[in-house]
Amino acid sequence: DADVTQTPRNRITKTGKRIMLECSQTKGHDRMYWYRQDPGLGLRLIYYSFDVKDINKGEISDGYSVSRQAQAKFSLSLESAIPNQTALYFCATSDSGTGGSGANVLTFGAGSRLTVL
Amino acid sequence: AQRVTQPEKLLSVFKGAPVELKCNYSYSGSPELFWYVQYSRQRLQLLLRHISRESIKGFTADLNKGETSFHLKKPFAQEEDSAMYYCALIRGSGNTGKLIFGQGTTLQVKP
User: Fold this and answer.
1) Which helix or strand (DSSP H or E) is residue B99 part of?
2) Quick check: B44 contacting A, CB < 8 Å?
C-alpha cells in the first residue's frame, strides 16, 4: 500500500463546480503539503500544515482552501473551479525532525489530475 | 527573492554519454538544495540533497556558492535515467519543508 494516497486520481469537472481532492498518509508524519504542477512552471506550494491545528498559505493559495481533518488527512478544495486550475496536484508529507528523513525531505503522493472545462 | 532556475526543458543524450542537468538558484543566505526525480509512472522522489554529499545511482551534485549553482552530473548515462528532474531549494531557513522547485528538466537517454 502506498504511504501517501490521493483521491481521485483523475477528475474532469465544469467551471463553477466545487471540487475536493483528498490525501491520506500512513507515514505518521506531522507535516502535509499541497503542491500544484504545471508544465514549464514546476511545482508550486498551495497550502501546508505542520500539525492538525496549523494551516498556512503557500505561494498560490487564492481560489483554494484546505482542511486538516486528522494527522493523517489533508484535503484541498476548490470552491468554484475555473479552467486555469486545470493541473496536476500533489500531496506530500514530511516529518518535523532534522537529519536524513527530516522536515525537508518530502514523500509525495501519485498526484491528482484535475481538468476544469 | 528566492528562485530556482533550470534552463533546459529537455536534455537528450545517448547511453554512455556524460550528463549535466543545470540548476541555478538565488538565495541570500546559506541554501539547502535538493534534486527530486520522477520516473515514468512513478512518484516524485528525492534523488539527493547537497548536505548529504552522497552519490545516488551514479549521480552527484556539488553546491557552488560562487556561481549559485547545483548542477546534477553523471559520467555515463543509462536508459533507466530517463525521467523528469527537479532542482529544489528550501524556502526560508530551517526545517520548514517548504520547497521552491525549478521548472524541471526532462532527461531522455537514447539507446
Assistant:
1) strand B99-101
2) yes
